[in-house]
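Homework help board

Subject: predicted structure for assignment chain

Our instructor gave us this sequence and asked us to write out the predicted structure in token form, then describe one feature. I got the tokens but I'm not sure how to describe them. Can anyone check?
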Amino acid sequence: MDTRNIRAEIARNGFINSYIGQFAGLKKSCIDARVAGKVDFRVEELIAIRDNCFPDCTLDYLAGCVSQRRI
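My token output:
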């Protein structure tokens, strides 16, 4: 999974990894590994993070599949 877009959104919104991780039920070490691209996000985690933190972004964008941010 390409995590450039989700990292960009985290920075753009002034969030920290542990803040977005709480919405997916992830501990700091787990969210850090996912944001770094070492472990892929599960779909449910990405949906929870999108719904609570980045509602104006598509899942495809956050997952790095497309470069367009909005629907």
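Reply (TA_rk): Your tokens look well-formed. For the description, you could write something like this. The helical segments are 4-13, 17-23, 28-35, 43-53, 59-62. That's the kind of observation they're looking for.
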